[in-house]
Amino acid sequence: MKSLIITTLLVLTTVIGIGNDIATDTLRVYQFELLEDIGAGSWRKTKKAMKEAADSDAGLILIHMNTYGGLLNAADSIRTAILNSDIPVWVFIDNNAASAGALISIAADKIFMKPGGNIGSATVVNQTGEPLPDKYQSFMRSLMRATAESHGADTIIVKKDTTIVWKRDPHIAEAMVDPDIEIEGISPKGKVLAFTTKEAIKHKYCEGEANSINEILDKQATQPYVIKKQELRPIDHIIHFFINPVVQGLLIMLIIGGIYFELQTPGIGFPLFVSIMATILYFLPLYVEGIAAYWEIIIFAVGLILLIIEIFAIPGFGVLGISGIILMIVGLAMAMVDRLEFEYMPILWSVLGKAFFIVTTTSAISLFVSIWLGGKLFKSSRFSQLALNTVQNTDEGYIGIDNSIIEIQGKTGVANTDLRPSGTIEIEGKFYDAMAKDGFIEAGTKIRVVEVKMAQLYVKPMNNVQ
After folding, report:
1. Residue 194 in 3-state DSSP?
2. What does the longest C-alpha to C-alpha distance in the chain come to?
C-alpha cells in the first residue's frame, strides 16, 4: 500500500511538472485595439493594457491598429509608454496608420501591415486640416526622428569604410512630417511621405505582410501562443464616450442652456437639474481619467457662484458677473487639457486654443439657441405657464415702485460705502441702495441722485453734476 501511494505521488508530480513546462513554453499575447481617432480614450486603453499585460505575465503586447490620426499629446503618451515597455510591443496595421498612428507604430518593436495598408502622412494640422506653423512641425519631426532612432543602428565596417545602417531610418520618419525633406528615390521634395505595405517592407518600416493577427503569430512565434484580448468594462465605455470632444461640446451646451432656462423660470426646476447633471457628466470622467484637476472644478464653481450673486443680489451687471463668466469658461476649458500637455510647450498653446475654442463656441451657440428657443416656448400656449407673464396694471391698484423713491431724484446726500458701482448712500438720515452713474464713487463723497429708474437710484458726485 505504501509503495502504491509513493508511485501515485511520483506520477502526479511528473504530470504537474510537465503541465508547468507546457504553460511556461506557451507565449502569452496580450491584444488591444486602437481603431479610433487617437485621443484621451486611446491613451486610457493603452495604460490599462500595459498594466494588465504586466499583471498577466504576457510575453508580447500586440496592438490592432486602424486610425487616420488624432491628438498629438495622446499619441506621444502612447509612444512613450511603448518605448518604455519591458514587454515587446508589435503593431498590426489593419489598413491605416496615418499621422498620430504612424508615430505610435514606429515606436513598436515590430510592424506588420495588411495588404493595401499605408503608414505616414504625419504633418501636424489644425481643426480645419491646415498645417500648423513650423514650430509645431519641428516638434513633430523631432518626435518622429527620436522614435526611429530609438531602435538603434548597425555599424558595418568594410576595410576603412564605416557605414551606419539604421533599423528605422530617421530621415524617412522626418519626411513623413515635412514635405521639404527630400530623400532620393523615396520621397520627392514637396510631398509628405506615406508608404504602402510593399514600400514599408522595402524600406524597413514594416517587418511583414499579413491579413490577420493569427497569421502574424503563426509566422513569427517560435512557440505555442495564447491570445488574451482586452475586455473593457461598461464603465470604461461610458468614460470613453463622455471624454469625446463632440460629447463634451454637447454637455457644455446643456450646462449653459440649463442655467439660462432656470433663470427664466420661477422657482427651482428641471432646467437646473439638467445643468447639474451635465456638469457632473462633464467633469467626473475627466477627473477620473486624471485629465481634470480639482482646482479646475473649483474655478468653474466659483465662477458660477459669482454669476448667481451678480444676477440675484446686485443690481445691474458688472464686475462679478463678467468675472464669473470668465472663470466658468476657464474651468471648462482647462479641464479638457491633460496635465501631460504642460510638459510639451510647443503644442501647449495649440491644445489650449482648441479647448477654449470648443468652450466659447459651444457656449455661444447654446446661449443663442436658448434665447431663440425660449422665445418660442414661452409664447406657446403649452409652455407659457413656465414664465411669469401676468401683467399688474396700475388701474387695478398695482404700484410699480414706491412713490417715495421717485421723490428722491435731485436730492443730495453722502456715499455711505464705496459705490463700485453699487453700494449704499445716506440722504436725510435714511439709507438707500444706489449705483454710480459713471465709474466708482468713494465712501464719504457728496452725491446727488440724478436718475430713478425701475426703483434703482443712480447717483453722481456733486462735483460732476452739471
Report:
1. strand
2. 123
Separation of alpha carbons 342 and 352, rounded Å: 10
What pLDDT score does 195 carry? Answer: 95
Nearest 5°: the CA angle 454, 459, 465 is 130
Sign of the alpha-carbon torsion through 373, 379, 384, 388: positive
pLDDT at res. 210:
95
Q: Does the CA dihedral 75-79-80-86 come out positive or negative?
A: positive
> What is the enclosing helix (H) or strand (E) of 1?
none
User: Which pLDDT does position 70 carry in this prediction?
Assistant: 86
pLDDT of residue 18: 43
C-alpha cell at 157: 565596417
C-alpha cell at 211: 491579413
Query: Which DSSP symbol is given to 167?
Result: S
Which residue's C-alpha cell is 491570445?
A: 227
Cis peptide before 421, with omega less than 30 degrees from 0? yes
Measured CA to CA in angstroms, residue 257 lies from 246, 274, 331, 370 at distances of 17, 9, 17, 6
- Domain ranges within the chain, ordered by starting residue: 2-232, 235-386, 394-464
Task: Write down the residue that cell numbers 471648462 correspond to.
Answer: 332
DSSP state of 187: B
What CATH number has the domain spanning 2-232? 3.90.226.10
What region, left, alpha or beta, does residue 358 occupy, with left being phi > 0 and alpha being psi -120 to 50 degrees?
A: alpha
> Can you spell out the DSSP letters for 313-377?
TSSS--HHHHHHHHHHHHHHHHHHS-GGGGG-HHHHHHHHHHHHHHHHHHHHHHHHHHHHHHHHH
pTM: 0.64
Name the 3-class secondary structure at 88. Answer: coil
Burial 429-446 (b: 16+ CB within 10 A, else e): eeebebbbbeeebeeebe
User: Right CATH number for 394-464 from 3.20.20.70, 3.40.50.300, 2.40.50.140, 1.10.260.40?
Assistant: 2.40.50.140
Q: Given this model, what pLDDT does residue 233 score?
A: 82
Grid look-up 518605448 returns 83
CA pair distance 461, 438, nearest whole angstrom: 9
Q: What is the pLDDT of residue 456?
A: 83
Run means of pLDDT, 10 residues per run, the chain, 466 residues: 55 49 73 90 90 94 94 88 96 94 96 95 80 83 93 79 84 92 87 94 95 94 91 82 84 87 70 88 83 85 84 68 87 78 55 80 85 68 53 55 74 87 86 84 89 85 73
Cα 114 to the center of its chain, rounded Å: 31
